[in-house]
Write a structure and sequence with these properties.
alpha/beta; Rossmann fold; six-stranded mixed β-sheet; 6 strands; about 30% strand
């Protein structure tokens, strides 16, 4: 998939009656996870400045499609390996799911696997960004 196709795919998933729809964005540093998040949220009409929440972990963003949360677990990858439940509690993950319509998670590969193994029953999609020189390719895993 190219950039436009992945944005269109993400938008179509918002038609789900189950909320929130969760997108896990995966790729190396500099792959464009925050760029993709910004473009997607702007396509949903946000007027807020979308920047990486690396240091604050989560950011709430209003869109025309509802309330979105943009999370970045980069700094939590090692602690999540030790005790994922404790980390989820510390970042209010379960509370976020109660109020969100859309959740975008950067560096959430451990959480994706954990939720899948727990039989989590909300729409979840992993968007993997592959980089080759100046080109990006996107793959979606459901």
């Amino acid at each position: 998939m190219d950039f436009k196709q992945v944005l269109e795919f993400m938008g179509r998933q918002l038609d789900s009656s189950l909320k929130p729809v969760i997108f896990f964005l995966e790729g190396p540093l500099g792959a464009g996870k925050t760029y993709l998040s910004r473009a997607f949220l702007e396509s949903l009409g946000t007027k807020q400045n979308v920047v990486s929440p690396t240091f604050i972990i989560s950011r709430e963003i209003d869109t025309l499609a509802g309330k979105a949360y943009h999370l970045d677990f980069y700094r939590l990858r090692e602690p999540m390996q030790e005790n994922i439940e404790a980390i989820l509690g510390q970042v209010n993950f379960w509370e976020i799911l109660q109020t969100a319509d859309i959740v975008l998670i950067e560096w959430g590969d451990l959480l994706y696997d954990y939720l899948k193994n727990q039989g989590f029953n909300l729409p979840m999609f992993k968007v993997v960004i592959h980089t080759k020189k100046d080109k990006r390719d996107y793959k979606v895993i459901h």
